[in-house]
Amino acid sequence: MREDISTTIAMDPVLSPFTGWGRARWEAVADDWLGQVRRHASAEGALPRLPGRITGDGVRREGMEAVGRSFLLAAPRIAGAADPAEPAVQEHLEYYSRALLAGTRPGGAEEWPRGVSCRLPLTGITNSIVEAANIAFSLHVSRERLWAGLTRPEQLQIAEWLRHHARCEVWQNNWQLFPAMAEGFLRSVGEDVRGLQTHRNVARVESWYLGDGWYTDGPEHAVDYYNAWAIHPYLWAWYRMTDAVHTPEGQRHLERLHDFTASQAHMVAADGSLLHQGRSLTYRTAALAAFWCADASGASALTPGQTRRLASGALARFTAHGVGVDAPLTLGWYDAFEPMCQDYSGFGSPYLAGIGFLGLAQPATASVWTAVEEALPADRGAFTVPVEPVGWVLRAAEDGIVRMANHGSDHATLPVGEDEDRDDPHYAKFAYSTHTAPGTGAAWEDAIDSHLALLDDEGAGSRRSALRAMRVEGEVAGSVHVPQLHRRALPGTAVTTVTAGDGTAEVRAHLVQTDRPWPMREGGWMVADDRGLLAGVFEDGAWAQGRDGLLAAVIGLHGWDAPEPGAAGGEAPERAQVFAYRDANAMGPHSATPALRGRTGTGDTVVVTLHVLERGGAVDPQGWRDRVRVHVDGTHVRVDWASGRRAEFDLATFVPWDGHPGLTGPRGEAR
Known about the structure:
With 671 residues, the chain is an alpha+beta fold. Helix content is 28%, strand content 20%.
């Protein structure tokens, strides 16, 4: 936060001993972020021009996003203020009323164009559909103060604009809920909804439910924070706006929302860091939205105090790193970092973070703002939580860092073809954490960190796409993929990987089935820093250490024989290496990942690797080796941890799969 905010609003160590944050600090941040938008506003408000990237759709689209998404932040601030005459609240009311009317005025397409059907070929700016949903959601939240304060002609003007977008056809993913938001709000205020049938969109999204509160984002197996900042909040709002919350479907969603908060709470570190996985991560605090929805409905798996502690910890973590401090929100994570963002992200995109402030819609007397503080899972020390329907296992050690073993979400399609290489670094890795980010740019091209690759003669590595089957059994998880090289599946080849963890370490065991030998490489977590990193290699492993002493290491436990010389007879590569990059990681400009090199045989090859991610530890190769003993008999692997825990599995049978090496058809039934 800006220094004047942090010095004038005192911390509250009694109510919030973990963060010191109370409602007043949330309100101050909201007002500050919204003030940044207004400082860059156009004359009528509908076309702010903030600093930052402009997408191919042009500046009008970015300005539209800046208004629609920052309204998500303004709406709860307006709705929950104790005194609607408070100057800051009046500024928000005046600005967004004026901006909405300017942007939806008939003939005003030069500022806010109408959306088009999302069917190829596209002929317009489709993102007006997204912002119509954000505006409808925000109008619902602030209805009693903003919508009620408009004249009837003004209401009819905005309603007609929303009605247009409620008719649009959209992509087969979370976009299905955008027309539903527009119709839902119109229905809630008694506007004309004849001919609108977006209940079908809602039913389609509900059909993508996986379990444990999680949905896949469309028919692809793409699971990420879109559950938190789009699917759950929009479903929550739709059932309320259409008076369907007490129907069997509405109650079912509340049950799913409850289960979602139970598992997502384990994706937040003790220091408030959020797990860094999935696309659109520049939305940042939007990941908190579902927690506020669940709390407001009495459906949360957390107590009100836990909800405040989790949300405040995350917001405090971002502001402590300068997010939104004395400048508009940037495209990035902590610092501006566009390589982690998608092509559709422009200068207005990060303001979807505002939906993560939804708790401000509740009054200051609500339990979420007054309850005695309670600890989160990461505050209580180590835990291991399987999320079986998704293919994840979440683990935290005593250091509070959360680590994810990823064997389910791949954001890729089948069958394999020319455009198959759609996996990206935020889905394709075997592991993610709250304190590391996957490599982007040159690091993604090399595909080293948290990945096992088969290498061609030029050293290009295979991709992990798409996953064919997965299984989570207690604390052990595994998956099967057919490696791709140069956008083609490698014939006669499949890789089964099983992960088992303990504390700050995990074992990844791989069964590579192939009809020819391949050079192979496996990388550990990528660590980053603002300055150079420390790194080194030893006999059977490598390590790298970055910010706050965060250290990643890999050690070959089985099957990592020394690699052979290259095809040209050149010198064999080192068995252990550290790969360093510049400007390839969202956590810092300098980054590095330790890696091992080896070679498969023909037929079945089993390799087992120890991965370590810990903070403040010393470089101790022998100590890392002493943490675990691995026994391999054919494809059977037994992992004995020094803590006394044991994992035992057969790589050939752990993940049921009806395919075979080289399969290019649909995913196995085990998915």
